[in-house]
Amino acid sequence: MKIDLTETNSSKINAAMVQARRDIGTPAVGMVLTLVIVTDEENAYDALKSANDASHEHPSRIVVVIKRASRSPRSRRDARLDAEVRVGADAGSGETVVLRLHGELVDHAQSVVLPLLLPDAPVVVWWPDGAPTDLAGDPLGALGQRRITDTYSCEDPVGTLGSRAGAYAPGDTDLSWTRITPWRSMLAAALDQQALTVVSATVEGEGDNPSCELLAMWLADRLQVPVRRTLSAGPGLTAVRLATKDGDIVLNRADGGLATLCMPGQPDRNVALKRRDTAELLAEELRRLDPDNTYEASLKYGVSQLAAASSQPEAEAPAKAEAAAPAKAEPSKPAAKPAKKATAK
Q1: Pick from 133, 149, 165: which residue ends a domain?
Q2: What does the alpha-carbon distance between residue 181 and residue 62 come to, in Å, rounded to a whole number?
Q3: Taking every annotated instance into account, which residue ranges of this chain make up the domain Glucose-6-phosphate dehydrogenase assembly protein OpcA N-terminal (predicted)?
Q4: Cβ atoms of residues 260 and 268 within 8 Å
């Protein structure tokens, strides 16, 4: 069911949602969170489709905020709110409200969204594109326990990582980080299988791909070894190589679907490592509403520090790793036998 409301307000929108639920025979509200999507007309359809798909796992009230730029000074002074309410089959497993803000109302979006939030339920704010630098300081971002962005959609993805690190607040996350969850899980499992000492690492992928940079920073932060970033034709992240004293651990995904894991002393094996769509990434982020400390540590490691570490000559990497390792105690020499005391004859 769809209900169009022109020149309306939050009270009328709430009343329309209640009436729509009664009309379709589901007066109870069985949603677990409110997902606020801040986007524009160009990206609204794709973002809403991904959110509806994710709502099958996380039934939620989806509030889409679309800020309409006014062309003339007179129209910019006229505040107007248009809304579209969707309930039932048209709204996934929850309910959807599409808000179009005009004029001066664009600068006060939080006052429109606040009355539409589910009571006593967490709030997640998602910017599919055009996210502000300070997510927690944004009026809409301040409403959410979690704030999701996608650095991949920025004009300068790698440069934006530095801005995100400087303005990070607990609850911030990025879909570029979510994309490397299977890679991190696979590499961690590989290191758990064998007690190998990693002396250096290489991350290969497309240029200006923030997921590659985040994975490289995660490895550098967790392993404390130099990590070199190399380029490939893609798609996305294509390979990770961990150099150890006993041989290399290589996770190679050339086609974006199936990867090959090579480990010292073991046969090569194929592992599923497909590129996931936005709905799957969003559903993963909605599973946890607590701050992601691992993402924070990796983000704050910094692209500049990563570049400085990777610029060291390869010959210095093992030496650095060995210096960082605790020195092995030398075998103790047997103690000299005590001299026999002279006895008087």
Answers
A1: 149
A2: 25
A3: 51-164
A4: yes
> Do 70 and 13 sit in the same domain of this protein?
yes
DSSP string, 247-278: EEEEEE-SSSSEEEEE-TTS--EEEE-PPP-H
Instruction: Kindly give the confidence (pLDDT) of every residue in the chain, 345 residues in length, as a single tens digit, with 9 standing for 90 and above.
Output: 889 999 999 999 999 988 888 887 765 567 889 999 999 999 999 999 999 999 889 889 999 999 887 666 666 667 889 999 998 776 667 789 999 999 889 889 999 999 999 988 999 999 999 899 999 999 999 999 999 999 998 989 988 999 999 999 999 999 999 999 999 999 999 998 888 899 999 999 998 899 999 999 999 999 999 999 999 887 889 999 999 988 999 999 988 788 999 999 899 999 989 999 999 999 999 998 899 999 999 999 988 888 776 665 443 433 333 333 333 334 444 444 444 433 333
* Helix segments in 302-340, DSSP class H: 303-310, 316-324
Measure the CA angle with vertex 216, ends 257 and 199; round to 5°. Answer: 110
Give, as one character, the DSSP assignment of residue 32.
Answer: -
Task: Kindly tell me the sign of the dihedral angle through the C-alpha atoms of 158, 159, 162, 163.
Answer: negative
The SS3 of residue 204 is strand
Domain that holds residue 303: 181-275+292-323
Beta bridge partners of 215: none
131 & 198 share domain: no
Position 337 in a domain: no
How many independent structural domains does the chain possess?
2
CA 281 to centroid of chain Cα atoms: 8
